[in-house]
Each structure stands twice: as structure tokens, then as C-alpha cells.
Write a structure and sequence with these properties.
The structure holds 2 protein chains of 2 kinds. By secondary structure, chain A is α+β, with helices and mostly antiparallel strands. Chain A has 12 helices and 11 strands. In chain A, helix 1 packs across helix 10 and helix 2 crosses helix 10. The longest helix of chain A has 44 residues. Chain A starts with a helix and ends with a helix. Chain B contains 7 helices and 10 strands. Chain B has a 6-stranded mixed sheet with strand order 6-7-8-3-9-10, with helices on both faces. In chain B, strands 2-1-4-5 form a 4-stranded antiparallel sheet. The chains are: A alpha+beta, B alpha/beta. Bound molecules: adenosine-5'-diphosphate and magnesium ion (MG). The site of adenosine-5'-diphosphate (ADP) has 10 residues of chain B, from helix 2.
């Protein structure tokens, strides 16, 4: 029997019993839909996260005040036992000086981040304001596209992220323009002259892509708080491969001045890595759920096909009596299953991509239908149905023609 | 002289079913030879083993004991696939209950043996149409076998049995489900085929259907009573 004749025979039998074909394909369609949709959604999440972190500097260490753990507790690079709830450490110039003196430290950026309302020619927006010590920031100086970076004596100057300056407000902001910041909780206002714009996509990972950079003295003016302290100190290591031991050393040094206060010292890359690990786990869990539904679908196909073989016993007997070999009968039923799997998988891929897009837009998650998830869906779909067809197909092949012809 | 032209030879064929206490012997030592071009009728009471014998001759079943030679070749020990090939190319079956595939057309049913033997599409279509035409079924080619009469079904089945131009036609009560008129027509068709050179082995209950037969073999209780050679 030639291949095209086999295909015609199988297509004919699929068509002859549409209800059966639909019934057995439903399980596979659902399985492939869930695999493709889940892989696509998690792929979208994954690439969204990695994109955000990809240009992150791997040589940075984050020192933050914390409330609920003692020095070196979870989150810190070493495993000293947590000493329970403590006051957050207040990070000050003393800490900056101390860290600057640790061997292996290249630059230290004391930061104070806060949200504020920005007003420019009648447009308002809530933005992220970052107080910096200008003298420390060689990284930001190098990232200036237009104008200049801040200097220590600037108390009414601001540097803006590219995305905030261009296309954010009705009118683009250029060096020389004045903007006004309003603190969110107090009725403080601060008029600032924009002196520089950062390059596009060169925002530091500790900053924001729509950030306003001002000096600490301007920040203090805006916030008007008693006891100004840093919200974090970012440390750049000289050697990115030495980030972990360096973080440990900084942690030990800080422990001396912050005995019973909470803070964390954490290489930023380690957060990225654990995030990716979690993303990977989510991704494979979702794919596993899809695989399980495929197995259930395959069992369904196997059952329906076994019923089909029973229903077709007489036809199988006829085929054998006019000279079909057992191998041909087996192949016909395997093709039946495989073709059903292929069609179901294709339908499942289309529906799965649609579901992924829908989930993406409804839940606001990025979704990404990759060739990989399509291939995974297709191969699992076809493979599981073909495997599901093996038992019914061998059952059909083994039938004794005389017995088969006798059945009614 | 006779040996040379025998295309079916049976020596001591036995067929038992079951095992142990439930073992029953249906064919109890059949010796038989049939020559090329014969039209043999196989008769006997119901349950005497006619169908069992025909199934063995038709390579659908294997004897429990004894030797079967077809076309001067011992086929007692050939593989399943070779038996299938003999059925496909050398034998044509006609059954009492027609055994057509209901979900495909009359034409496709007649084409099926040629599909199995790998005949090109155009060639097999033409041959199927010719056969159906000869048997007066040209007007039914696109019908489902389920929507035509019994007499018509048996003509389609005969057309199918002739598809690969077999040497032997094996017919198990081909007129068993037909009225007198249709029975007569089927017997006439078979007689014509026999005159055209086909060897025919037919089981029948009706003595009237044997008038054109070259020989009548009588079977009783698994043994041949008369007509063995
Ligand atoms: N597979 C089988 N197992 C057990 N008994 C069988 C089997 N096939 C046939 N028989 C028995 O063999 C006997 C002869 O059957 P069969 O050859 O069909 O008779 P006939 O065609 O002459 O009426 C019957 O009694 C039948 O029940
Ligand atoms: Mg019988």
C-alpha cells in the first residue's frame, strides 16, 4: 500500500466519523493550548524580567536600611543568625566614608530616592527623584547626552533621564528649561533648572528610566525632614568577580557602627539570579501542567481509538481478507492517531497563541510566542497521540481475520 | 499427468480448535486436489467444516496438521505476510454476507485490493470501472454499498474479488443471502468466469446452483464423503 493511498484511507476514516475525531482531538487540543499558552506567557514574563535586568551592572552592591533583620541576616551574604526585629540603620556620610575605605571599592553612590510631582509648562506627572552626591558619579557623568552633570554646589539644578525629557510631556525638556517639583506629602515646592539630559537607555540600574537627578542638598530642601539619611548606598566594585567577598567585608565593617540596627548588603546580580531561578521554576511548572493535560488527552485518544478498533473490527477483517498485512493495518491506525495529533496540535497552537495574547493583554503580562514553544507544543502533541495509538493499533493488527469477519 | 495441473493440494489436513478437554476436531484428515480451471462445489450439512476448510484453502487460517500446497508450493510454513500476499494477488473472496466496506463507495471498494497491491491510481480506477461495467454495476459506482440491494452488493463483491486478476475464486455460500433470481444471476456470472479460465471453489447448500460445476465434493463431520479427486 502506497503512502498517499494510506493517507487517503486515514483521512477518509477521520472524516467518516467526525464526532469521534473531534472527541479524541479535544483532549490533545486542550493540552497543546495549555502548553503553548503557558510557555508563551512565562517566556514573556521571563524576557521582560531579563530585559530589565540585562543591562544591570554586575559590579554593584546595594546597601539598604532594613527593619526586620539584624546585620548579616537573610539577604546578607553571610549566615549569622537573625537577631529579631530591630530598628533600621540610618545610613549617613559616616557609612559612605567607611565603605570608601574598604579595599576593592571603586565608587560609592549614596542615594536618596523619593517620588515627587513634576510640573513643566502646565503638565504634571509623578516621577522618581534621586538625590545623589555628584562628585562620586563618574558613571552618570559619562552618560550625559546634552548639557552637563551636576556638581556639588548645585542646589537648584537637575539632570533628567532621556525618556522623561523627550516625548513624556507635551513639550520636550531641554537644558536651560525650568521645572518645578512638589513633595508628595508636604507642601514643599522646588524650582529647578535642567542642566543636563542623560543618553537614551543609559539609565543606571539604581535609578529610573524616567528619573530626575538632583543633589542631596536640593533633596533635603524638597523633603524637609529632620535627620536626612540615605535610602541606599550603591557600591561599585573594582572587580566584578570579587563582588561577593567585597559585600561580605562591607557587611562586617558596617556591623561595627550599626550594632543593633537592621541593614542589608546585597550584590544586585544575586537578586537578578534568584529572580531568574524563580522565573524558570514558574515556566517549567506551567509547562508541566500542560504536559499533564496532554497525558490525560493521550489517554483519552487511546480510549477512543480502542473503541474505534472495536467498531471497525469487521472492516479490519475485510482488509485482511483481501490481502492487507498486519503491518499495514498497524501503520494505518498509527497514522490515524498521528494525523489526529498533528491536526489537533496545529489547532492547539493557534488557540494557545491566542490565549497567550489574551492573557497577556488582560493581565497586563507580556507574552511571547516563540518558535520553541510552538515546537514543544507540536512535538508533544504529535508524540503523545502517536504513542497513545500504539496499543489500539497493535490490537487491530493482531486481529484474526476470520474472527473479525464473524463479528457484527 | 493430473499432478502437473493441480493448483490446490491437501494432504491429511486436520483442524482442531481449543485445547485440553475443550479440544474439538473439526477437520479430520482431508485429502483433496483441485485442478486449474475446475468449478468445484463444496456441500455438506451445517457445521460439517465447509467454511473451516475454505478458510484454510484461502490462507485465512492455518491447518493444525497436514500439508497444503497452492500453485505447487508448500505454504504450511510461510510467513503471515506471505499469506497476505497470496490472498492479495492469487485469491479472490466472495462471502455470503458480502463484506463490503460501508463507509466508502462501490468504486473504492472494488479499487481496494489494487490499492493494497500498489497499482497506480489511473490504472486501478480504469480497471475497477471496467469490472463494474462488465457486471452491470456502472450506474452504482458512487453509491454506498449500504444503499444498494443484496444482488447488487454481491456483484460488487465479485468485481472486487476479480480486481487483481486472481487464479482462484473462493466463494462461501455466495447465494446464501439472495433470492432465486439473484442467485441464478450470480451463479451464471461465476460460470462465465469459470469458462474464462478461473478456478472456482464454492460452498453451497442449493443443489440447483451446482449444475455448471465440474465436481461436487461432499463433506460430513470433518471428512470428505465423495468427490475428493
Ligand atoms: N474458532 C473456532 N473455535 C471453535 N469452534 C469453531 C471455530 N470455528 C468453527 N468452529 C466450529 O467448527 C464447526 C464447523 O464450522 P464451519 O466450518 O463454519 O461449518 P460449516 O461452514 O460447514 O457450516 C462448527 O461447529 C463451529 O462451531
Ligand atoms: Mg459455513
Amino acid at each position: 500500500m502506497k503512502l498517499d493511498d494510506m493517507l487517503e484511507y486515514v483521512l477518509g476514516s477521520l472524516q467518516a466519523d467526525k464526532r469521534r475525531s473531534l472527541m479524541s482531538s479535544l483532549g490533545i487540543i486542550i493540552g497543546v493550548v495549555s502548553i503553548v499558552a503557558m510557555l508563551s506567557v512565562s517566556e514573556g514574563l521571563y524576557s521582560g524580567v531579563s530585559e530589565r535586568f540585562s543591562d544591570m551592572d554586575v559590579d554593584l552592591i546595594n546597601v539598604r536600611p532594613g527593619t526586620d533583620m539584624g546585620p548579616g541576616g537573610p539577604g546578607g551574604p553571610d549566615d549569622r543568625p537573625s537577631s529579631g526585629p530591630v530598628d533600621p540603620a540610618e545610613l549617613s556620610g559616616k557609612d559612605v566614608t567607611l565603605i570608601e575605605n574598604v579595599v576593592g571599592v571603586k565608587e560609592v553612590y549614596p542615594l536618596k530616592s523619593n517620588r515627587a510631582k513634576l510640573s513643566f509648562r502646565g503638565d504634571n506627572a509623578s516621577v522618581s527623584v534621586i538625590g545623589v552626591s555628584p562628585g562620586n558619579h563618574n558613571d552618570l557623568k559619562d552618560a550625559i547626552a546634552k548639557g552637563r552633570f551636576l556638581v556639588g554646589s548645585d542646589s537648584t539644578a537637575a539632570v533628567l533621564s532621556y525618556d522623561l525629557a523627550v516625548g513624556y510631556f507635551r513639550m520636550d525638556i531641554s537644558p536651560g528649561n525650568w521645572i518645578t517639583l512638589y513633595s508628595e506629602d508636604k507642601d514643599r515646592q522646588l524650582d529647578l533648572k535642567v542642566v543636563g539630559i542623560l543618553k537614551e537607555d543609559e539609565d543606571p540600574s539604581y535609578g529610573s528610566d524616567t528619573g530626575v537627578y538632583i543633589t542631596h542638598s536640593a533633596m533635603e530642601e524638597l523633603l524637609d525632614v529632620d535627620g536626612y539619611s540615605y535610602s541606599s548606598i550603591v557600591v561599585r566594585a573594582e572587580d566584578s568577580s570579587q563582588v561577593d567577598p567585597l559585600a561580605e567585608e562591607i557587611d562586617d565593617d558596617l556591623a561595627r557602627i550599626h550594632k543593633d540596627e537592621g541593614y542589608s548588603v546585597e550584590p544586585t546580580a544575586s537578586r537578578f539570579e534568584s529572580m531568574l531561578e524563580v522565573m524558570n521554576m514558574i515556566k517549567y511548572t506551567l509547562a508541566a501542567i500542560g504536559a499533564i493535560s496532554l497525558i490525560v488527552g493521550a489517554i483519552g485518544i487511546s480510549n477512543v481509538m480502542t473503541l474505534t478498533v472495536r467498531e471497525r473490527i469487521r472492516e479490519i477483517g475485510i482488509m485482511k481478507s483481501i490481502g492487507a498485512t498486519s503491518r499495514e493495518i498497524k501503520l494505518l491506525f498509527l497514522m490515524d492517531a498521528g494525523l489526529l495529533g498533528l491536526i489537533s496540535s496545529l489547532v492547539g497552537i493557534v488557540l494557545g497563541s491566542a490565549v497567550a495574547g489574551l492573557v497577556g493583554s488582560v493581565a497586563g503580562l507580556p507574552s511571547l510566542v516563540t518558535v520553541q514553544s510552538i515546537m514543544v507544543g507540536l512535538s508533544f502533541g504529535v508524540l503523545s497521540t502517536t504513542i497513545a495509538g500504539v496499543y489500539p493499533a497493535s490490537m487491530a493488527a493482531r486481529l484474526d481475520p476470520i474472527e473479525a469477519l464473524r463479528t457484527e | 499427468m493430473k499432478r502437473i495441473t493441480s493448483i490446490v493440494e491437501l494432504y491429511g489436513i486436520e483442524r482442531t480448535f481449543g485445547s485440553g478437554e475443550n479440544k474439538i476436531s473439526i477437520l479430520k484428515g482431508i485429502d483433496l486436489s483441485i485442478d486449474r480451471g475446475e468449478f468445484v462445489a463444496l456441500m455438506g450439512p451445517s457445521g460439517s467444516g465447509k467454511s473451516t476448510l475454505l478458510n484454510i484453502l484461502g490462507c485465512l487460517d492455518r491447518p493444525s496438521r497436514g500439508t497444503l500446497r497452492l500453485f505447487s508450493r508448500d505454504i504450511s510454513s510461510v510467513s503471515e505476510d506471505e499469506l497476505a500476499e497470496i490472498r492479495r494477488l492469487k485469491l479472490g473472496f466472495i462471502f455470503q454476507s458480502f463484506n463490503l466496506i460501508g463507509r466508502i463507495s462501490v468504486l473504492k471498494n472494488v479499487e481496494m485490493p489494487m490499492v493494497l497491491s500498489g497499482m497506480p491510481r489511473d490504472e486501478r480506477r480504469k480497471r475497477a470501472l471496467d469490472l463494474l461495467e462488465t457486471l452491470g454495476m456502472a450506474h452504482r459506482i458512487d453509491f454506498s454499498p449500504q444503499s444498494i440491494s443484496g444482488g447488487e452488493r454481491q456483484r460488487v463483491a465479485i468485481a472486487r474479488s476479480l480486481a487483481n486478476d486472481p487464479e482462484i475464486i473462493i466463494a462461501d455460500e455466495p447465494t446464501g443471502n439472495l433470492d432465486t433470481k439473484n442467485s441464478l444471476e450470480v451463479i451464471n456470472i461465476l460460470s462465465d468466469l469459470n469458462r474464462g479460465g478461473k478456478t472456482i471453489i464454492m460452498v453451497t447448500h442449493n443443489p440447483e446452483t451446482t449444475k455448471n460445476c465440474s465436481r461436487v465434493i461432499k463433506l460430513r463431520d470433518g471428512r470428505i464423503m465423495e468427490g475428493a479427486s
